[in-house]
Amino acid sequence: MRLFSKRETTQTKDEATDAAAAPVIREPAPTGGRTAAAWTAVTIGVLVAVALVVFLAQNTRQAEVSFLGFTGSVPVAIALLAAAVFGASVVLVVGTARVTKLRLAARQLRRRDDDR
Fold first, then answer.
1. Which residues pair with residue 24 across a beta bridge?
2. Angle at 80 between CA 74 and CA 85, to 5 degrees
3. Backbone angles phi, psi at 72, to 5 degrees
4. Residues 24 and 10 sit within 8 Å (Cβ to Cβ)
5. In whole angstroms, what separates CA 72 from the centre of its chain?
6. How buried is residue 110: exposed, middle or buried, by Cβ count under 10 Å (0-12/13-18/19+)?
7. CA trace torsion 48, 49, 50, 54 (10° rounding)
């Protein structure tokens, strides 16, 4: 018994007996696309924003924060949010530097291959 993948042709019993019959090719159904991806991203963004607002509303207690000689009192939620934004910024800068380095290396390889 042979199993067919989605992209392989499938034939009915009548078509199998007819040698001249053209194979029927069934393509997979299209799934979403850019619009679906955009709506998914918007939905996730809204859910994160709602969770962030709830987090900020529930963590209003003041906390003493000291950083590089500066001392102040801020809500716990704001302090945690600032730390998260700072951490995300560091990841963004390091990731951008890495991607830029990889793109430059790929460009140099393409130019070297084109020169051959």
1. 10
2. 115
3. -160, 170
4. yes
5. 37
6. exposed
7. 100
> What is the chain's pLDDT, residue by residue, as a tens digit (116 residues)?
555 555 555 555 555 555 555 667 777 666 667 788 888 889 998 999 899 888 888 888 898 888 888 888 988 888 888 888 999 999 999 999 999 999 999 989 888 888 77
**How far, in Å, CA of 103 to CA of 9, rounded?**
40
Instruction: List alpha helices for the chain, DSSP H.
Output: 13-17, 34-58, 76-115
Distance CA 115, CA 11 (A): 50
Q: What tokens appear for 20 in the block?
A: 């001249």
Distance of alpha carbon 75 from alpha carbon 50, whole angstroms: 18
Q: Whole-model pTM?
A: 0.51
> What's the token pair of residue 90?
């560091």
Q: Which residues pair with 63 in a beta bridge?
A: 74
Residue type, 51: A
Tell me how far apart the alpha carbons of residues 81 and 86 are, in angstroms, rounded to a whole number: 9
